[in-house]
């Protein structure tokens, strides 16, 4: 069990590091685009494509981090109203729904990636499938994250003090 815990922490630290690098590179490319367009008056054609691609990767990898922390959609009022046994049953239902949806997204994303494998992004001169593959990779990691979060056992409902 300790090995699985180490593997879990290592995997999601790696995903977090990659996600952070991607978001910083996206901001840097966007900043460069503004400087190149309005100050140098010579816009770069690659920066918009890179910003878009890195933001897509950031989101798809980021969902796995959110799911791993348990920051997924849940019904907190229902969770806290149920007893311990009912709350755990609700977690099983939420697990099944999340894994089913993420599995469907991974399958559709893999099909999309395969379909566009011969299209290239002219500004980056790489296949657009490198962007589309973020969908099956991100959702597969999210499935692992959901299962890892569920395997930890029951979690106490987090209620914040936000007022609307």
From TrEMBL:
Subcellular location: Cell inner membrane
Entry keywords, A to Z: Cell inner membrane, Cell membrane, Membrane, Transmembrane, Transmembrane helix, Transport
Record's keyword annotation contains Disulfide bond: no
Domain Tripartite ATP-independent periplasmic transporters DctQ component: start-end pairs: 28-152
Gene Ontology molecular function, alphabetical: transmembrane transporter activity
Assigned GO CC terms: plasma membrane
Membrane topology of the entry: Multi-pass membrane protein
Primary location class: membrane
Record-annotated membrane-spanning stretches: 12-35, 55-77, 89-110, 130-151
Database matches in Pfam families: DctQ (PF04290)
Source taxon at top rank: Bacteria
GO biological process: C4-dicarboxylate transport
Tagged with keyword Ribonucleoprotein: no
Subunit structure: The complex comprises the extracytoplasmic solute receptor protein and the two transmembrane proteins.
Family: Belongs to the TRAP transporter small permease family.
Function, as annotated: Part of the tripartite ATP-independent periplasmic (TRAP) transport system.
Name assigned to this protein: TRAP transporter small permease protein
Native species: Pollutimonas thiosulfatoxidans
